[in-house]
Amino acid sequence: MRLVFLGPPGVGKGTQSKRVGETLGIPHIATGDILRDAVARETETGRKAKGFMDRGDLVPDALVIEVFKDRLRQPDTKAGFLLDGFPRTIEQCRALDACLLELGTPLDRAINLEAARSAIIERLSGRLLCRSCQAGYHVKHLPPKCAGKCDACGGELYQRADDNPQTIGNRLDVYERQTAPVVEFFRAKRLLTAVDADAEVETVYRATLAALGR
């Protein structure tokens, strides 16, 4: 099965896509992971991307597309794949279409995880991360046993600088402007399925599998 997962920041896209990928036995391919992998393998596109990443700059759209094309040609994607966070622009949608046409492996479904804006802001603004192991917590929904300390390793918990209501609102605005056309692109192809992500993780997971006929 070949899937794309869409959804705004804080909707739980990473959590759900990784779990669904494991359940279906297909590789979970996320933008950050794929760029780091290309750099580690020292591919031509990886070497080009490394310069931007080392400077802390955004990797240009054209390079991201090339990295994804290279990844989708790897043997482990023959049985399927799950793309997390790609495509994000219409240009990337068209590039993905062209690549899959070349490979003879059309996309099966685009899952769009949806949640109320207020729920996303509440979810992100209460998020806590461990400085040592990066384990995630939430001040309301998943508090640590000991305030300020990670249950797993005892590391210090902190809140990301951009996890405040105003910044989160701006991030959601950018996402909507950038990604709304992508959602419509897949809707027009009759590949889009919306899943209500404003629920518990397990509930969203079961609803996603049901949407995929599993």
Give an overview of the whole structure:
With 214 residues, the chain is of the alpha/beta class. It has a single domain, classed as Rossmann fold (3-Layer(aba) Sandwich). It has a 5-stranded parallel sheet with strand order 2-3-1-4-8, sandwiched between helices. A 3-stranded antiparallel sheet has the order 6-5-7.
Question: What's this, in brief?
Answer:
The chain is of the alpha/beta class. It contains 8 helices and 8 strands, in the order E-H-E-H-H-H-E-H-E-H-E-E-E-H-E-H.
What structural keywords apply?
3-stranded antiparallel beta sheet, Rossmann fold, 8 helices, 15% strand, 5-stranded parallel beta sheet, 8 strands, 214 residues, single chain, alpha/beta
The CATH H-level homologous superfamily: P-loop containing nucleotide triphosphate hydrolases
Main sheet: strand order: 2-3-1-4-8
What class do helices, strands and sheet pairing give? alpha/beta
What percent of residues adopt helix (DSSP H or I)? 40-55%
CATH architecture call:
3-Layer(aba) Sandwich
Distance between the termini: 11 Å
What is the overall pLDDT average? 90
- Please give the radius of gyration in angstroms: 18 Å
